[in-house]
Structure formats: C-alpha cells, structure tokens
C-alpha cells in the first residue's frame, strides 16, 4: 500500500511550539484522510527547528465507494415535488428510483445512489490547503508579497517549501500537487542552512531521512536529545565534572539545532560567589547552556556546556569564545543584583510607617524590601487589595494556625512578614522563578533564625504533585496560611475554577493544603478557618481526586466523606481503615449482611411498614435475634469509643464481630413475622445494624 510523505519547511519555529505543532499536524491530516474515506496503517510525526514532517504508512490508494439511500416523496405527489426529488438525488428520470411501501404511509420513492470513491492523491490535494491555512499556531504571521492580499497565508514563521509525495515501495512516487500562499507542493527539500543549502530531491520517507542526515539534519527530535545528553555528559566527565541535568532545557535546546555540536566553555571563578541558583538560571535563560559541578558537589563549577548548530572548522573555539563573553556579561549583571540586594535602599525615611505596621527592622536589607513592598501599594489582585494587605491577612491566619500545628508563634510571625519581601529584590525581579529561594538566602545573610529562612522558601510549596511539602513546622504554618488565604480570598470575590479554566491555580493550592494536612498528620477543622461550606466542598472534590490517585476506591471515599466532614486527615484515615477492612473476609461478609439488612429495611420503610425506634428485648424470642441484639450493643459501644479515640482500625475490628450473628440471624429468623409487633421489633434490629456500621461509614454506598 502507498505511503505519504509530507514536509512543511519554514524559517525557525520557536522550540516551545515544535512538539505540539508536529502532533497537531499528524492529527489534522490523519483525521481528514479518515473522514474522506481513507484508512492507514500508521503515522509518525517529526520536527526540527525548520520543518514539520509527517510519515503516513499503508494509506489506501483510493477511498471506497459509498452507497446512500435518499428517501423521496410519496408516489402520489405532484410532478413539481418529483422533479425536486430528482434534482436532490441526482437522477435524470423517476424511472431510476425505486418504489418502497410502508403499511402506514403507503408507497414512496427511494433513490439508491452510489458515490464512487476518490483516488488518494485527489483527497490529499483537497484537504491539505485547508489544514495549512487554518493551522492552530499560537501566534501566526504573514510574510512575503502575498501578505498584502486579504486572506493571505499565516504561518508561525515564513513558510518556504512543501514536500508532498505519495506512492508504494514497488512504484515510483508521485508529487501530490497543491498550492497555498504561492508555494506549490513538490519533491524538493533542503538540508542544513549553512552546511548543506543545496536542493535535495526526495521520493519517500527512507531516502528523505537518509538524505537529510547526509545534509547535516538529524530529523528525529528524540535522537537529537540523546546526542546532546550523551555528548554533554561525556565532555563533562572528561573534564572531571558532572552535568547538572535539566530535562526542560534539553527539550528546548534540541529544538534550536538540526545538527547538534556540544562544546564546553568557562567563566571566571570569582563569579562562583553568586548563589548557584542565580548562575544556573542566568546561563540557562540567556544562553540556553547547561551548568556543571564537581561530582557530588552542591555548588557549581565554572564550566558550562553549550550546544551549537554549526560544525565549526576551528573546533568551535570562536563559538565558545563568543558564548563565554556573553555569559560573563550576564554573570556580571547577576553579581551586581546579588550585591545590591544586600545593601540599603536609598529612601528609608519613607518606609517608617510600613516598618512600624509589620514590626520590621529597617537596619536589615530584607526588612527594607518588605517595607518597600507595602509602601508602594503593589497590587496582589484588584479585588483583593495590595501585597501588604495580603501579608497582614496571612499574618492573622498564621497566628491562628500556629498552635494547631505546634509551631513557635514568634518565628511564624517573623517568617510571614518576610515571606514576600524578596519580591522587591533585583534578583527576583530578573528571575521570578527564584522567589522564596532568594528570600531564604537573604534572610540567612541578615541573621534570621534558620526555621524562618527555611519557611520563606518553603511557603510556596508544594507547587505541584511532584514537589515536596514544607519540612518544618514554621514553614508548614506559613504555607498553609498562604494557600488558605488565596482560596478564601478568591472564593469571597467569586473567582472560582470553572471547567478546565483555573487562572489562579486554585486547584493546585487546595491540593497543596490537602497534601500538607495528610502527609504531616495535621488535624485542622477547615470550617472554623475558611467559614465557607462551598469552599469545603471544593476541598472534598480535590480530596477525592488525591485519594483516588493514591489508590483508594471511589465508593469507599463516598462511604466515608459526608458533606460536613471538614477534618480531611480523619477522612483519609477512615478510608484507609475501611479499605483494609473491606478487603478482608470478615469485611466482605459483613458488607453482604449489612447490605441485605439495609435493603430489606429500606423496602419496608418505603411501604410504610412500622419500624420501632428501639429494640424491645421482651419481643426477642429466638436465640439468633437475642445474640444479634447483644452483639450490636457491644459492637456499637466499642466502635463508637474507637472512633472517638480516632482508632478506626479498632472500630472496624469491633464491627467485624457482627459478622457471625448477622449471618445466623438471616439463617434462623424470618423478619416479616405474622405478628406486627415482632416484625416491627425485628426491623428495629436491622435499623440497629445500619446505625452501628454508620458510626464508621455508610455501607450502602460500598459496591459489592
């Protein structure tokens, strides 16, 4: 079966867009071909900085014929209606139609129309211009002489050529001709811009990929990444160093080169006095280079790894020299930021009111920055006030949380008032990713308690499911207060997540709160803090997602989670205990007996049958019902005591003693006794079973 090769070659595509664009091209093309009646065996996308490529294997040479039945009017309608039907069906005479009969509607015309299939070349040529013209680039642009015309082609960067060939291995491929934006599809591409600018004629994917390789283009992005990673590690190792790996940077750099050449550069050791985080971000952000360190060291070396797109005749000396000059200039700026942040601000007299408000010491640089943040009235959110007002709210909330978590209130307060101060530092102004990290470093430099400095960095954590939670109690308190203030505030102004939209990352904030409470065993009654049942419900939704991700069954979560449950740690512990119980033989059997009791009771209640409020011992005549009554009394008392002591496993163990008496009851006792009083009393026993198990979970919601 024939294969399709498609290449869209342009000027350099931004690295961050390449992978998604190649995937979009694959989906758009294959969907369009399938919708047009073609099938294919497989498709794979490729991308480089200058091209998107699609290799579609085993494509049908033509689409299948399609039979369509077009229902027409009754045979008794006027001639005018029949003519309309003929035009719609494409028939020249009513004699070409068939007459069908319906018992209710009588005889009517039907046209059996066969639409012949189309050759694949024609389909490809038909769908491709629309796909290219409407391609979902985030920021497309117009270019060339065609750009002045209305409706001209937009592409992420100027589109330069299109390759579109089709054919099987046993025949010569043919060009699928189509034109868009003045560019006509052909069978000619070009290799590396500098090393191989000559035209290359291609037929199918195998010779296309091989020809590009000879022309200094590695087509496969994953292979480019592997080349860069391997060569970078090798060159670092050869110099007695190890590469500081960075998957995001590796992905980006692989999208900047078609023929990766890995080189090593250096900078002066004096710059190593700058924190490693600043050095790494400076070199990464500005030069797209990797950093290195001595094996096992915490700090960096003065060697960096760069990736060039050119195989230089001098072995890369000039490239390394040029990159080194820029790196040194950037590090010089970074050193300037680092030192300035440790000095005094020039306008200290204007900061006294803010300093007094937050108890700040204006002899300390970080305190000055916090006072400046407040004095400038920097906006946090138009409806939620300034950063200073937000810090004041977090301060109040943190004071409430500190005794619950067991943190030192004075250290918590100090950490809160300094937590946002580094937002006014030049280092964070240049690299926002360093907020918190730089605050910790500056706090230690001015002699703050280690737990305060740690809390300044950790209060942003966790920032995602793979990020750690704060380790210390001070950090936990500030982090909880920070995230809860965010959630309380946005709920107050009705800025809640909707569908897939969550611009303020409120789901992430709620998940962070949940992880801190559960991983650090914190008992926090949420309603007393957030005072909003709808927000507690939002926490419930996030908790369900978190527990399911941890492996908990959704029905067990539903059996435990009630609308007024605001102690999330206790909910999680109940689910854990219930999971262990239900997977045991006693648990499974008790569940079956409890469900039988509950269903029978519900059916009788629905019919209006009288059920006694309490069991009357005088009406218990059979040994099995007497034994069950005694077992329920004991199990209820023991389970309730265990729940009160937050020992849910013991509560489950207490309930497990009901298994045998429940089974015996249903074996020996007829609930629907002829005597109404006895029946009502036995139903009360079933109600007691439901109440006893309900102290731990709603067993009716458990599947099985």
- Count of DSSP strands: 18
Mean of residue pLDDT? 93
Oligomer: single chain
CA gyration radius, whole angstroms: 36 Å
Range of strand content: 5-15%
| End-to-end gap | 51 Å
Largest sheet: 5 strands, antiparallel
Which strand order does the major sheet show? 2-3-1-7-8
The global form is: flat
Low-confidence stretches are: none
Number of helical runs? 26
Catalytic activity: tRNA(Gly) + glycine + ATP = glycyl-tRNA(Gly) + AMP + diphosphate
Protein name: Glycine--tRNA ligase beta subunit
Organism: Shinella sedimenti
EC number: 6.1.1.14
Task: Describe this structure in a few short sentences.
With 704 residues, the protein is of the alpha+beta class. 50% of the residues lie in helices and 13% in strands.
């Amino acid at each position: 079966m024939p294969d399709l090769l498609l290449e869209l070659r342009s000027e350099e595509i931004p690295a961050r867009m390449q992978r998604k664009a190649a995937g979009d091209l694959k989906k758009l093309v294959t969907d369009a071909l399938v919708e047009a009646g073609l099938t294919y065996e497989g498709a794979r996308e490729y991308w480089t900085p200058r091209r998107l490529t699609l290799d579609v294997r085993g494509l049908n040479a033509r689409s299948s014929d399609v039979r369509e039945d077009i229902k027409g009017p009754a045979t008794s309608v006027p001639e005018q209606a029949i003519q309309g039907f003929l035009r719609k069906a494409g028939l020249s005479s009513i004699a070409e139609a068939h007459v069908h009969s319906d018992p209710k509607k009588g005889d009517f015309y039907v046209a059996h129309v066969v639409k012949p299939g189309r050759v694949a070349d024609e389909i490809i040529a038909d769908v491709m211009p629309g796909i290219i013209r409407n391609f979902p680039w985030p920021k497309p642009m117009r270019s060339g002489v065609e750009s002045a015309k209305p409706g001209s082609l937009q592409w992420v960067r100027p589109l330069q050529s299109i390759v579109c060939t089709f054919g099987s291995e046993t025949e010569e491929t043919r060009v699928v001709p189509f034109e868009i934006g003045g560019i006509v599809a052909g069978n000619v591409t070009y290799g590396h811009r500098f090393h191989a600018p000559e035209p290359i004629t291609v037929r199918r994917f195998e010779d296309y990929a091989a020809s590009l390789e000879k022309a200094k283009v590695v087509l496969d992005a994953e292979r480019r990444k592997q080349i860069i990673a391997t060569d970078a590690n090798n060159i670092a190792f050869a110099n007695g160093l190890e590469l500081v790996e960075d998957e995001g940077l590796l992905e980006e750099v692989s999208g900047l080169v078609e023929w990766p050449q890995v080189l090593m550069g250096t900078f002066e050791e004096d710059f190593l006095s700058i924190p490693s985080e600043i050095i790494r971000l400076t070199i990464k952000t500005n030069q797209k280079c990797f950093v290195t360190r001595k094996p096992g060291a915490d700090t960096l070396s003065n060697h960096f790894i760069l990736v060039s797109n050119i195989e230089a005749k001098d072995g890369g000396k000039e490239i390394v020299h040029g990159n080194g000059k820029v790196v040194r200039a950037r590090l010089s700026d970074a050193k300037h930021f680092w030192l300035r942040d440790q000095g005094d601000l020039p306008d200290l007299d204007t900061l006294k009111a803010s300093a007094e408000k937050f108890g700040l010491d204006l002899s300390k640089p970080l305190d000055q920055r916090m006072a400046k943040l407040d004095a400038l009235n920097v906006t946090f959110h138009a409806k939620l006030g300034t950063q200073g007002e937000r810090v004041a709210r977090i301060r109040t909330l943190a004071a409430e949380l500190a005794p619950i978590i067991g943190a030192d209130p004075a250290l918590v307060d100090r950490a809160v008032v300094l937590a946002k101060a580094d937002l006014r530092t030049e280092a964070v102004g240049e690299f926002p990713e360093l907020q918190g990290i730089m605050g910790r470093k500056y706090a230690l430099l001015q002699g703050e308690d280690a737990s305060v400095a740690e809390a300044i960095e950790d209060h942003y954590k966790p920032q995602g499911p793979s990020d750690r939670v704060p380790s210390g109690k001070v950090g936990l308190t500030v982090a909880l207060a920070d995230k809860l203030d965010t959630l309380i505030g946005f709920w107050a102004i009705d800025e809640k997540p909707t569908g897939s939209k969550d611009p303020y990352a409120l789901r992430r904030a709620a998940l962070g709160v949940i992880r801190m409470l559960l991983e650090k065993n914190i008992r926090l009654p949420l309603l007393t803090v957030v005072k909003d049942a709808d927000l507690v419900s939002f926490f419930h939704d996030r908790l369900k997602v978190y527990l399911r991700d941890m492996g908990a069954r959704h029905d067990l979560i539903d059996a435990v989670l009630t609308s007024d449950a605001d102690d999330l740690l206790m909910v999680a512990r109940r689910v854990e205990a219930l999971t262990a119980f239900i997977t045991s033989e006693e648990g499974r059997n008790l569940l079956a007996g409890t469900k039988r009791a509950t269903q029978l009771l519900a059916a009788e209640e629905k019919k209006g049958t009288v059920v006694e409020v309490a069991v009357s011992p005088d009406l218990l005549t059979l040994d099995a019902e007497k034994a069950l009554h005694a077992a329920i009394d004991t199990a209820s008392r023991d389970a309730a005591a265990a729940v009160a002591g937050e020992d849910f496993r013991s509560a489950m163990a207490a309930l497990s003693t009901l298994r045998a008496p429940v089974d015996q009851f249903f074996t020996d006792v007829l609930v629907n006794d002829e005597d109404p009083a006895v029946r009502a009393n036995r139903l009360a026993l079933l109600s007691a079973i439901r109440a006893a198990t309900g102290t731990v979970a709603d067993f009716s919601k458990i599947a099985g």
